[in-house]
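DM from R.C. (forwarded with permission)

"hey, sorry to bug you on a friday — could you get me a structure for this? deadline for the figure draft is monday and I only need the backbone to look sensible"
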Amino acid sequence: MLLAIDTSAGTSVAVVDPSTRRVLAERETEDARRHAEVIGPFLDEALRAAGITPADVTAVVAGMGPGPFTGLRVGIAAARTFAAAREVPFLPLVSHDAVAAGQHGPLVVLTDARRREVAWSAYDADGVRVAGPGLARPADLDDVLRASRADLVDWPRHTAVTIPAGRLGVLAADRLASGTPLAADTPVYLREPDVTVPGAPKRVAR
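My reply, with the result:
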């Protein structure tokens, strides 16, 4: 059984049977500010709804983004912790790939990147990512796409408010079966976190 987790947009957790590609259970919310609050209950509910225990999970799939730093790290940390505790493989995938896998291409997948920007990735008719992930302001998106590849500006666009963990798990099962590589084991942060290293302490005159 595959446990799939994504918090790059909203929060989504699913259990997938890799032998049948069936999504046995899925819990999700579009709320992009309560990842840490809902991830635990969603994990418990998804496992119970699928009729399995943590011991039945054979691998954990994680959406690696693109996504905002704070939300994305919640899901990745939960996935890594679960995989480490059960001593099962950790399977990373680019989150946008799961959205494209459920659509008919070519298309451009968009997700909210906050700060009045969107994250984008472009996929051909076979669902292969041909450009991105990248970051753009909505008003500049046409120019950004055109600069990456001229014909992308005319491709249909799909805005995802959550990344379905069920699709993420099915995609992982397909790639494992076909021997197709997964993603790099590195979160896809398209901008630097807000946290900065403090400078030297200021001198205080007496």
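R.C.: lifesaver. The longest helix spans residues 69-86.
me: no worries. The chain has a mean pLDDT of 93.
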